[in-house]
Structures are given as structure tokens and as C-alpha cells.
């Protein structure tokens, strides 16, 4: 019979903050129950603590195209020839806003977009081995006519280029590796499965 573990089967012996800036790094000493029974040894683990995130793939069902943003990402500096990544609209839940409220706010700030409707895709942990980040992933229907240009908040140092991609070209960019971040990959694959339904449900363009 398989054991069903819960958080009560993890014993956190100590937890200290090793660094605190915009993000936080905690150092934990813990042990957990084993599949074969009993408790394992005490483990030292470093945990990257950050706010949960909201990511949105804006999709125009009438023109069958998506809105993507492009900005430099420090995490890609050493492992990519082009650290300007093609991504979804995204932001952190760092106030008492709901994920849906963050989605609408970030769409306006990062792409000048008004979201007509939000379709939940999935919620997931992108890197649970060392981070507690939790992502709320959506597809949103938009009217993409006139969308584009440079956006972002100057006070946050944002320099975001907005571009329109026919859905087939965005998927091709995924397959060639030009789009190589998890949220965008998951959302575009979901869209491939659901685009025809979304287009049918959208009806004539208002």
C-alpha cells in the first residue's frame, strides 16, 4: 500500500533568513518521513522565497494571433546568446490583489491591453526543488488591433517591446527554441489544444 504523505510528515528543525532584498533566501534544516518507513537524515536546504506570479497569454481569436512581450532577463545572461526573452504578460502578487486583478493590471502596464475574458490554464510550481514560487497561468481573449510598441513602468526600469504573432508562427518559435521559458511553452501548447473552441465561442468580432 502506498503511503500518502502530508506536510505533517516534514519536520522543520530550524529556518533562518540568509538574505533579504526584493526576494528572500531562507536556510532550512529539516527531515522527512521515508517511503520505506521511519525518518530520513537532517537535510540543509536553501529556499528562494518569492511572491506568487500571474502569467497571461493574450490571444485574439478573431485574427488568430497572440500578443507576446520581449524584455531582457538576468537569469538568461550566461546561458543564452539573446537574453531578451519572448514571454507572456506577467507580474507578481505582492499586495492583496487577486490573481485576476494582477492579470488585468499587468496587461495594461506591460502591453496596453484590455483583457476581455480570462481562461484559467493551470496553477503550478516552476521550480519546487529550491523555490516556493507558485504560478497562476491564464489565456485571455483580446482585441489586438493597434497593439504594439514599447511599454512598461519607467520607475521600475521596464523596457518592454510588444509584438503580434500569428498563432502558427508563435508555435513554430516554440518548436525551434526561440521561445524557451516554461509559462510561454505551457500556455502556447494549451492554446493549440483549445484555439478552435475559443474562436468558435468568441463569435463575430465586436
From TrEMBL:
Keyword match Magnesium: yes
Alphabetized UniProt keyword annotations: Hydrolase, Magnesium, Metal-binding
What highest taxon heads this organism's lineage? Bacteria
Residues annotated for Mg(2+) binding in this entry: 90, 106, 110, 158
Endpoints of the signal sequence: none
A single GO cellular-component term from the record reads: cytosol
Indicate the family of this protein: Belongs to the Nudix hydrolase family. NudF subfamily.
Q: So what does this one do?
A: Acts on ADP-mannose and ADP-glucose as well as ADP-ribose. Prevents glycogen biosynthesis. The reaction catalyzed by this enzyme is a limiting step of the gluconeogenic process.
Q: Can you say what this protein is called?
A: ADP-ribose pyrophosphatase
Q: Which organism is it from?
A: Halopseudomonas oceani
The uppermost taxa in this organism's lineage are:
Bacteria, Pseudomonadati, Pseudomonadota, Gammaproteobacteria, Pseudomonadales
